Amino acid sequence: ILIRDIRRIIQEAAKKPCFVCRNMGATITCWATGCDRSFHLPCAQHGECVTQFFGLYRSFCWEHCPRQAVQASPRQKSTCCICLDTVEDKTSYKTMVCPACQDAHFHRHCIQRLALYAGIRFQCPCCQNQDLFVMEMLTMGIRVSKRPPSWVSDQAVGLLDQRHSHCDASTCLCPEGREHAEGEGPWELLLCSSCAAEGTHRHCSSLENSTSSWECEGC
């Protein structure tokens, strides 16, 4: 994206009110055709909006967000299989179910925490299905980390856990080369906040000194 395009997007967003908090500067607009609802990313959960962190990175308001086709099996006093607190007896924005076993019920915020904690080993906590389960969670707006699980030690991860140490920008502008990195300033090396497998100098990706995180194109 060119700098002028970024400026245009920012200028347009400054004129859009968030339908959740009513403040201006809403940068996300519902993907549904004909819907002009816009919202801030931090307001998404409060407004029951869904943002998909894959593919086209589509976002939807509460009215047009995807809903699970599978229905949770009705039962008395359904509990979340993660926190063991009570959940609704039907699927909703806050209550989700595994599409594979259709028996695992969980809160949205609980499965989101598990996704970030489990990383590449994210799967249904009950039936251990991964392929169907992960795709369903991504579609429903759960962000899945590409990192090794949090419970894996540094020794177990081995070389895969070593810190990435060079700039992967298409054009590296650092006069000292891609391997050079400083503790701060334009030649500080930032790693992708999702996969940590790619990095960039701040200056090579036009990142301000105040920017604390960055994501590679693949993430």
TrEMBL record:
Keyword terms, alphabetized: Metal-binding, Zinc, Zinc-finger
Protein name: PHF7 protein
Matching SUPFAM superfamilies: FYVE/PHD zinc finger (SSF57903)
Cleavable signal peptide: none
GO cellular component, one term: nucleus
Membrane-spanning parts: none
Organism of origin: Pitta sordida (Hooded pitta)
Gene label: Phf7
Gene Ontology molecular function, alphabetical: zinc ion binding
Pfam families: PHD_G2E3, zf-HC5HC2H
Residue ranges annotated for the RING-type domain, each copy included: 80-128
Residues of the PHD-type domain: 1-65
